[in-house]
Amino acid sequence: GADDTLDGRGGDDTLEGGAGGDLLTGGAGRDRFVFGDEATASGDQITDFVRGTDLIVIDRAGFGLAAGYQPSVVTGADPQATTAGPQFLFETDTGRLWFDADGTGTEQEAGLVVTLTGVTALALSDLLLI
Question: Per the record, which residues fall in region Disordered (predicted)?
Answer without folding.
Answer: 1-22
